[in-house]
Amino acid sequence: GNSVTQMEGPVTLSEEAFLTINCTYTATGYPSLFWYVQYPGEGLQLLLKATKADDKGSNKGFEATYRKETTSFHLEKGSVQVSDSAVYFCAQSNTGNQFYFGTGTSLTVIP
Amino acid sequence: DTAVSQTPKYLVTQMGNDKSIKCEQNLGHDTMYWYKQDSKKFLKIMFSYNNKELIINETVPNRFSPKSPDKAHLNLHINSLELGDSAVYFCASSLGGVGNTIYFGEGSWLTVV
């Protein structure tokens, strides 16, 4: 079946630290992969996406590379800021009609 | 203009009441969804409609009934509210097709007392 597994949080980092949030997926075929971010009190917003193997999605200093061989799409940022504190969701979709989300990883960045 | 808008944003109501949450999208998308997010931020799909037809109907109590009058609207009606229904409900929409993105509304915070 289709599913997404992402590392459990919460994650607490100091400002300017390196961030990695792991995400792996199981799917039939080759899905599109997404990272969404949810700031407190808001809905989910698309952070970045990749639609085929070896694609790298990037936005606001965040990056993730679609790795077919390891079925992974890990989210990274070289230097986090307090404003990056949020919940991050990994997701996949084969069809664009059905999306599978991970359980979310809460990130807190302290000054 | 807000792409996916849902109302009300906050709703506090007593057990046993019936309430509705409305959702509209102005993106021209064919598919709309309702998700429930619990206090641990876990996101669960409830329903999905494509061009007004139900395509996903997850294990949800019969007290929850979605209605799609047209492809731009998907409303959620909840009967006989229970304490466990307290959650954030998100409406979302997507164009469909490989690689397309799902867009979320701001959420409706439902508290049942």
Describe the structure.
The complex is a heterodimer of chains A (111) and B (113). Chain A is an all-beta fold. Chain A has strands spanning 3-6, 11-14, 19-21, 23-26, 32-38, 44-50, 56-59, 62-65, 75-77, 86-93, 99-101, 105-110. In chain A, strands 2, 5, 6, 10, 11 and 12 form a six-stranded mixed sheet that branches. In chain A, strands 3-9-8-7 form a four-stranded antiparallel sheet, with no helix packed on it. Chain A has a two-stranded antiparallel sheet with strand order 1-4. In chain A, a hairpin with a 2-residue loop joins strand 7 (56-59) and strand 8 (62-65). The N and C termini of chain A lie far apart (41 Å). The model of chain A has no long low-confidence stretch (mean pLDDT 95). By secondary structure, chain B is an all-beta fold. Chain B has strands at 4-7, 10-13, 19-25, 31-37, 43-50, 53-57, 64-70, 73-78, 87-94, 102-104, 108-112. Chain B is globular, with a radius of gyration of 13 Å. The mean pLDDT of chain B is 93. Classes of the chains: A mainly beta (111), B mainly beta (113). The A-B interface holds A 32, 34, 36, 38, 42-46, 49, 51, 87, 89, 91, 93-99, 101, 103-104, 106 and B 4, 31, 40-43, 45, 48, 50, 55-56, 90, 92, 94-107.
Describe the secondary-structure layout.
The complex is a heterodimer of chains A (111) and B (113).
Chain A: E1 3-6, E2 11-14, E3 19-21, E4 23-26, E5 32-38, E6 44-50, E7 56-59, E8 62-65, E9 75-77, E10 86-93, E11 99-101, E12 105-110
Parallel strand pairs in A: 2-12
Antiparallel strand pairs in A: 1-4, 3-9, 5-6, 5-10, 7-8, 8-9, 10-11, 10-12
Chain B: E1 4-7, E2 10-13, E3 19-25, E4 31-37, E5 43-50, E6 53-57, E7 64-70, E8 73-78, E9 87-94, E10 102-104, E11 108-112
Parallel strand pairs in B: 2-11
Antiparallel strand pairs in B: 1-3, 3-8, 4-5, 4-9, 5-6, 7-8, 9-10, 9-11
